[in-house]
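Subject: Pyrroline-5-carboxylate reductase

B.,
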Amino acid sequence: MKIAIIGTGNLGSSIAKGLVKNNTFSSLYLSDKNTTNVDAYKSLPNVVVTNDNELAVAESDIVIFALQPKHINSVLEGVSSKISEKHVVMSVAAGVEISRIEGIIGADKNIIRVMPNTAISIGKSMTCIAANKAAQDKVPMARDIFNQLGTTMVIPEDQIQAATVICASGIAFWMRLVRATTQGAIQLGFEAHEAHQLALQTCYGAASLLKESGRHPEEEIDRVTTPSGCTIEGLNEMEHQGLSSSLIKGINASFEKINQLKKN
Ligand SMILES: NC(=O)C1=CN([C@@H]2O[C@H](COP(=O)(O)OP(=O)(O)OC[C@H]3O[C@@H](n4cnc5c(N)ncnc54)[C@H](OP(=O)(O)O)[C@@H]3O)[C@@H](O)[C@H]2O)C=CC1
Ligand SMILES: O=C(O)[C@@H]1CCC=N1
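Prediction pasted inline below.
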């Protein structure tokens, strides 16, 4: 597979890192105005780091646009003459609808909207995928690529905004929960590095329990909450303070915001 990534910022460089780790491409072009994030890959075989977006598109079959929404139009316009029916154009830009991309490069082109998260750099992304009409037969290929970098789910395009909040912003939400747990542990007397390790491994264990057992979170909670014990005491206090409510409200605030971004 001849792959290009246009825009090697936070997400583009995370995708590059995951692809390099798996080494499943025949060539990989990494293009950005400033290539600092990916300069380390210059010396790898079959990897080209460049400032030339047109070259990257011309030399590739799959082109992943990892740009801020404000840059996507001008960059697509700049390379549009190089995009043919052989290309599969993938965009990770939050809030940028397929119809906007079709308006620039044409509805006859293969366009796939992909929403990974930054865990893609370690092969643990939850990646949601939606394709335009022309690219329906390219969906299995897109899944093959992103399944190597985590797990994929194909969803209707009108759910991509919601998936962005849960899965892409979700990384930040979970990080904050880990950080808050660490702060609690420090208050209980642990050194910061110990507190971090305790919080992290417990979070990992909780997620692994759900993944491996297939059980509902409440079932796992019931196993921990000794009657009149300390867990239910803490859990109920957290709920009185609005833990579930603030998470749900935060998710809704993010969703409102992403729906405004769409209009820009
Ligand atoms: N961060 C995340 O976790 C996630 C982000 N997204 C989405 O992915 C997209 C990218 O986000 P993120 O990686 O954080 O953004 P960044 O700003 O970190 O990366 C975008 C990169 O594109 C570069 N760029 C701008 N103009 C051009 C151009 N003309 N040619 C080549 N490169 C250019 C930017 O350079 P410069 O900085 O110099 O402008 C920058 O390096 C966004 O749309 C975001 O919504 C989606 C899921 C998760
Ligand atoms: O915060 C943002 O707007 C982008 C989209 C999801 C993750 N980062």
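Residues 6-12, 31-34, 53, 66-69, 71, 75, 92-94, 115, 117-118, 168 surround NDP (ligand 1) (CB under 6 Å).

T.
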